[in-house]
Amino acid sequence: MIQDQQKLTQDLLSLFPNVIREMPPISASETDCLVSTTLCLYDPTWPKSSDDTKISCGPRGNTGTEEKENSLMKLKLLSNEGRQEEEQYGVSTELTLCTDPWTIKKKLTISDRSRQNCLLLNPRTVHSHIMRYLPEVNQKMVQEGSGLTVDVYDHNTHTTHQMLLTKLTRRGSYVLSGGWLMDFVIRRALKAKDEIGMYWDLSDSKLHFCVLSRAPTRVGSGSVLAVPSQAPIEVSSGSVLAGPSQAPIEISSGSVVASPSQAPIEVSSGSVVLAGQSQAPIEISSGSVLASPSQAPIEVSPGSVLAGPSQAPIGVSSGSVTIASYSPLLADP
């Protein structure tokens, strides 16, 4: 029986001699029977030239971190080159999603609102955002000549004005003069600590202007009475007397008395006597404000004051107010 099987095997080998002989020997070890699960993008048996880079299918280790560091170094080098190119040619190579157009900002000072009729600008800011965009001829006019006339567009009022850009040789600063006082300080009612913004537009060669923020309004101690058809009244201390259709009156401290009476009226501290209305004093709190039907603005000094068309002074103590009639006294709140 065994001899028959061996003979059958030999017969089969004779039928397929090449296939059987080229098959590798089967190993009994378990390690040769393992199947690799490593993924690779190429077949190692593919033909390749000698200069092809070697591709590894094994674990990469810290290769990803090294490549990321190399890419960041390249970006740093490019940014440094961009800065050098920007300084040399005056062209920016950096891309940004959003930028503030008002590259020149300043909070106005008292000197900017004076009669000198000029706006003082920082030399470094002017050189970075205005001078480098001007032709060489215009740059010489600003630095050495009588100045350069520039168009200034007001974004708030949509008007165009002209001012003179010059450089102060002594201080090295730049100033905008010409129509600064009339066209901007007075026309726009600019005050100290108002913040303005400007930038130079290359497309139309204009200087654009805008009031970014206003200075906060300060109200000190004392009370303020707003009269109908009158502007808000600002005081530093003390009380304010404002007559109907009259300009606001500013005082420093003390009390205000308004009365058309012909004789002096004696009142005590913290009380009010209404002439022609009642004989008993009316108690009021300190810091009160009354309106008088006087025809002219009343200026008062510290202490007790009588304001009005009366013929004789009215003696009052601190914190009291005397008035003539009740009808025009107080405005609507």
TrEMBL record:
Looking up PANTHER family in the UniProt record yields: TF-B3 DOMAIN-CONTAINING PROTEIN (PTHR34269:SF18), TRANSCRIPTION FACTOR B3-DOMAIN FAMILY-RELATED (PTHR34269)
One Gene Ontology cellular component annotation held by this UniProt entry: nucleus
Q: Does the keyword Iron apply?
A: no
* Single annotated GO MF: DNA binding
The record ties this protein, via InterPro entries, to:
B3_DNA-bd, B3_domain, DNA-bd_pseudobarrel_sf
Instruction: Specify where it is mainly localized.
Output: nucleus
Write the protein's name: TF-B3 domain-containing protein
User: Do you know which SUPFAM superfamilies this protein is assigned to?
Assistant: DNA-binding pseudobarrel domain
User: What are the entry keywords?
Assistant: DNA-binding, Nucleus, Transcription, Transcription regulation
Q: Which compartments is it annotated to reside in?
A: Nucleus
